[in-house]
Design a protein that fits this description.
By secondary structure, this protein is mainly alpha-helical. Helix content is 36%, strand content 8%. The chain has a domain of 199 residues. The strands form two sheets. Strands 1-3-2 form a three-stranded mixed β-sheet. Strands 5-4-6 form a three-stranded antiparallel β-sheet. Helix 1 packs across helix 8.
């Protein structure tokens, strides 16, 4: 459904609700873990049809009669400000198509947008509202579900070639994926770095978009720029995904990247201006020493190489960091999931 009937002011309010909901969960991944997101709120309980049927010795027909729907519904308990979302996990047409995920997101939308409270309804049912009120609330809940399950700013980093990519990545039904794909193309045609909502969503998913694993040393990294692995120095061995749990620990630094303790003289009073230890004169900022390199940023404290030019880092040259251990490396080629190949580094957000 294309949400053309929702006024701009209300769309922005729904976006704020989506951002707040995602931020509350604190773990930004795709596919969105919609069940975990709902459960992250202490006043929301998620109950499957099968669980409620077993607990109350109900048949499936009785369960449908109880909820009044084959999809999902929410009961609101005003005195306790408590919500129970019932969702269908019995009907294979719903479960195998991942429609149940949309149903949960839709019900969560009703809750986060305050529909039950504003309209003083225990449940959002058509026969308890005027047609226009019901259609308005349903459209808003669908808009919420579409934004939270398919965050466009997070997908922009991937080469989305057709609706099936969104279906697989976001785990939504085929009809929903087709709608969101065309909405994604429309959004992409006029995406702006000045859009505050898109920028916040992009940064919320930054670690997901730019997580890399090195096929050579197994390192897991968060790296937006550069083709070199900062651990082993190999070029073109980075691909999207999680690493192999290899341990290349970060050294303890301040926010500016300066070591909290000098590794040469063990001076612990290093939180002063400058890049050198004031006791022994050691350079205690990890940077690329190549003057012809465009990388002027401080490198991660475990980086043995510059990700842009492949030059050995100052910490590696000074033997503060040792060579990565080939003996401990265990090859693990398991991928995170089957996603579009390739990452688009030319993104408008910074």
């Amino acid at each position: 459904m294309t949400q053309t009937n929702i006024p701009l002011k209300r769309r922005n309010e729904i976006k704020e609700a989506v951002y707040y909901t995602l931020q509350n969960y604190k773990h930004s991944n795709i596919p969105v873990k919609i069940k975990a997101i709902a459960r992250s709120f202490t006043n929301i309980r998620l109950v499957s049809y099968s669980k409620h049927m077993k607990k109350n010795n109900l048949s499936y027909d009785c369960m449908i009669k109880f909820t009044g729907t084959k999809d999902a519904c929410t009961d609101y308990y005003a005195k306790a400000n408590f919500f129970i979302i019932y969702y269908n996990d019995i009907d294979r047409n719903i479960t195998t198509s991942n429609r149940y995920r949309w149903n949960i997101a839709h019900e969560l939308g009703h809750i986060m947008l305050g529909h039950h409270i504003t309209h003083e309804k225990t449940r959002i049912f058509r026969n308890e509202l005027s047609n226009s009120e019901y259609d308005e609330l349903e459209e808003e809940a669908d808009y919420f579900a579409s934004l939270i399950l398919v965050p466009h700013a997070a997908l922009l980093g991937f080469q989305i070639r057709n609706a099936n990519y969104i279906k697989v990545m976001c785990k939504i039904s085929e009809p929903a994926a087709k709608r969101r794909y065309y909405e994604f193309l429309e959004w992409k045609s006029h995406v702006s770095a000045q859009d505050e909502y898109d920028k916040r969503i992009f940064h919320l998913y930054y670690n997901f978009i730019y997580k890399r694993k090195c096929k050579n040393c197994g390192a897991g990294l968060i790296q937006r720029y550069g083709k070199y692995c900062p651990i082993c120095g190999n070029k073109n061995t980075l691909e999207w995904g999680d690493g192999d749990n290899m341990k290349y620990p970060l050294l303890d630094t301040y926010e500016n990247g300066k070591l909290k303790e000098c590794p040469v003289c063990h001076n612990e009073d290093t939180n002063i201006d400058g890049n050198y230890c004031q006791i022994c004169g050691s350079y205690i900022i990890n940077k690329c020493p190549n003057q012809n390199c465009d990388n002027y940023d401080v490198l991660p404290s475990n980086a043995r190489y510059c990700p842009i030019c492949g030059e050995s880092s100052t910490f590696y040259n000074a033997n503060i960091l040792k060579v990565w251990d080939y003996k401990e490396y265990k090859n693990n080629s398991d991928g995170f999931m089957n996603i579009p190949d390739g990452i688009d580094e030319e993104l408008p957000f910074h």
